Amino acid sequence: MPKQSFKVCLCWRRVFKTRVVEPPLDIKNAFYSFSPSGMMTVDDLLRFLIEHQGQKNATKEDAQAIFDSLKHLNIFQRRGLHLEAFFRYLLGDLNLAHPPSKVHHDMNAPLSHYFLFTGHNSYLTGNQFSSASSVEPIKDALLRGVRVIELDLWPNSSGNDVNVCHGRTLTSSVGLQKCLEAIKENAFKASEYPVIITFEDHLNPNLQEKVAKMVTETFGDILYTSETENLEQFLSPESLKKKVLISTKPPKEYLEGNTQGEEISENEGGTVANECQSSSQWNPPEEGEHVPDEDEGKVVPEYRQLIAINARKLEGGLENWLSDDPKKVSRISLSEQKLESAAKTYGTKTVMFTQRNLLRVYPKRTRLDSSNYNPFVGWMHGAQMVAFNMQGHGKRLWIMQGMFRANGGCGYVKKPDFLLHRGPNDEVFDPNLPWDVKTIMTVKVYLGEGWHQDFHHTAFDRYSPPDFYTRIGVAGVPADKDVKQTATIEDEWLPVWDEEFKFQLRAPELAVLRIKILDYNTTGRHYFGGQVCLPVSELRTGIRAVPLHDKKGNKYKHARLLLSIKFEAP
């Protein structure tokens, strides 16, 4: 790519020379400090991995594998790596800041000790009011590692079958059977750890009986059912590998009428009906209203036996909702606003509740555009199921994807110890107290490359190469949130920034490193050039490559940054 021309008009083209980027000074210094002769041997590279990159368990085989990966390049020499080959290795996939890894957290603790990758209205393809319902978003979520799928169950227009849709909206419906089959087919392709299906049930007992038959016949042996209604402790993800679990309220609680909801009242006030609620046999009531049914005294034992995780009916106020019954565990669901209220008033009670029980948080009903909320309010209080709309994109969904890149991307991330600890007098972590700084993370942004291979040369500017800058920051607990920005490098596909930033971290276990590349535009509408979010707790130190992703979270083939990362005591 020696030159690039941009057509301005019929008689004028702008021609830009492209340069070859030299290794930054830090990389030159590192290279020559471990290979004074100017040629890095396998033994030299091994010392570099251990002493500079912090890979204490690196072996000679690891160093040899790096050598072997460079043999196809014309710059490789048998005697060892010279500076250019060393530079190419640093930018390659064997030197990632967060490489693909296996599951490494302890997976033998109860389910309540983990954050779960959780979807909200998993069947919707777009907004919450008028988009289509489909099995495709369910498949996509499972293939990305999502472990909790939500299905809203409604009668069809004839009242003789079950559909999945977002009630009291203009969204279309999809058959429950299709959804169950899609889940079965894709449940364990990305992760072998359990999939939990949360039902929002708007059905009469006859249709509940039909659901029970569908579920048992579809999933067969992979469906986990509990032998007892009252579990004293949840089972572990390890013991539930390749199992599907159903979580909803027991039928008798539906029959008693719904006073607080889960999400049955999330869309109250809507005036538009769809086929999911036009059944003459079962038209869902307004919040708090109880509509008699000819079969309402009938409790369907087959349906009850499906429920592996009881969703508790919410009665009384927040304090009562968060009460912990020592004889049994359960799940409750709170809207994002209810969680914020609980966090302000009952912070420690929420942490204590989530040590044994499951707390699911869902978006407020006004998020008709399928946007998302701040997940850290839930996570810092121990909420396991922070339910997100997965069908869009944006900062908060990228953060969610970044958090669940941890632990091999299996969809289960072990909670930090401070959220699980209880003192001798039952005292627990208080999220409302000041947080001490635990570590300082220093990130130096050296350079970026690969955009000219992943984008058309006029993708950013019709008349010149892009003007890239990097926004880099930390998403986490409120005291850790920080965003910094590099200078803008004009007219350059291979920008070199060489800028260093420091971040004070109080809860590094929950922190996510955020990176976003933008092409500066004088109109103020800066063009997207890639993003990535990575769990701080799993970042590798040293000089590292960071591949970038598109808005949907898919990795680009070539676009990436070169950074250095280090941690030090405050």
Summarize this, please?
The protein is α/β, with parallel strands linked by helices and 570 residues long.
Features:
single chain; 570 residues; alpha/beta; Recoverin, domain 1; TIM Barrel; Immunoglobulin-like; 3 domains; 5-stranded mixed beta sheet; 16 helices; 24% strand; globular
Low-pLDDT ranges:
257-262, 264-274, 278-296
Under the CATH scheme, which architecture of the largest domain would be assigned? Alpha-Beta Barrel
Mean pLDDT over the full residue set: 90
Give the total of beta strands: 21
What's the overall geometry?
globular
CATH C-level label of the largest domain = Alpha Beta
Q: Give the percentage of residues in beta strands.
A: 15-25%
Structural class: alpha/beta
Oligomer: single chain
CATH topology of the largest domain: TIM Barrel
- How does the major sheet shape up? 6 strands, mixed
Biggest sheet strand order reads: 6-5-4-7-8-9
- How many angstroms separate the termini? 45 Å
Helix count from the secondary structure assignment: 16
Count of discrete structural domains: 3
Q: What is the CA-atom radius of gyration, in angstroms?
A: 27 Å
Which percent range fits the helix content? 10-25%
CATH homologous superfamily label of the largest domain: Phosphatidylinositol (PI) phosphodiesterase
EC number: 3.1.4.11
InterPro entries: C2_dom (IPR000008), C2_domain_sf (IPR035892), EF-hand-dom_pair (IPR011992), PI-PLC_fam (IPR001192), PLC-like_Pdiesterase_TIM-brl (IPR017946), PLipase_C_PInositol-sp_X_dom (IPR000909), PLipase_C_Pinositol-sp_Y (IPR001711)
GO molecular function: phosphatidylinositol-4,5-bisphosphate phospholipase C activity
Enzyme class: hydrolase
